[in-house]
Amino acid sequence: MGKVDVIFKKEDIDPASMKGKVAVVFDVLFATSTITAALAEGAKGVYPVLDHVHAREKAKSLKEPYILAGEDHGKLIEGFHPPLRTYLKSVIQDQQVILSTTNGTVALQRSSQADALYACSLLNNKAMADHLNEIHDGATLTLVCSGSSRHYTLEDFFGAGSLIHYLVEGGHWTLSDGAQTALLFYNGNNEPVADLLSKAKIGRLLIGAGMDPSEVAFVSQEGIWKTIPFYDRAEGKIKEWKHELS
């Protein structure tokens, strides 16, 4: 029987302690949702980097078509595409995406010593649960909520709860107290997910700053894609899981 634990924010990640574990990172608003959408809609891969400096360094080393996308504390980085599906879906086909965000890509980097590392969102939560039950049955799963500004965020905790819900539907797992709490939160929610995420701090801030609420509505959809974003350590990028990798 496998085990499931939850890390509440990226600052709580001990990179060395991730060894021997399977890590699943959530940044529902928006990095891991953007990664899921990008791979589902034709991007060749996504390089999650720590900041815009690392993004530009990575760009110099690539010998294939790429785009830069990212934000820094909610503000667009000069020369970068906004890191949202609406802006990226028309430009990512057959491109490598170099993605820099304040929280999600940092959490992915800090989790990269895990034996296996995935990016999850509500958009692919059901498929991710099926994949983990099939490939990592009996493993120790660490669900990483990226959080924001050293605080945990409602949307990532809800995302972790959603994955746990589908994990226990199809497999046998021992849940930590944190994982139990996330599951109870997810199962106890009675309002539309888009409304819940719009009321979260990040949702309020972004919508208040002029972001179209449809961005939140889109990433609130559960299970619309079967895409499994998997971190290939040798290449330093996230790409869609293929069974030959197993």
Automatic annotation (TrEMBL):
Tell me any Pfam family this protein matches: 2-ph_phosp
Q: Which cofactor does it need?
A: Mg(2+)
* Reactions catalysed according to its record: (2R)-O-phospho-3-sulfolactate + H2O = (2R)-3-sulfolactate + phosphate
Name the UniProt key words of this record, in alphabetical order.
Answer: Hydrolase, Magnesium
tRNA processing in keyword set: no
Q: What is its EC number?
A: 3.1.3.71
Q: Which GO terms describe its molecular function?
A: 2-phosphosulfolactate phosphatase activity; magnesium ion binding; sulfopyruvate decarboxylase activity
**SUPFAM superfamilies of this UniProt entry?**
ComB-like
**InterPro entries, from UniProt?**
ComB-like, ComB-like_sf
Say which family it is in: Belongs to the ComB family.
* PANTHER family named in the record: 2-PHOSPHOSULFOLACTATE PHOSPHATASE-RELATED
Protein's name in the database: Probable 2-phosphosulfolactate phosphatase
Organism encoding this protein: Halobacillus locisalis
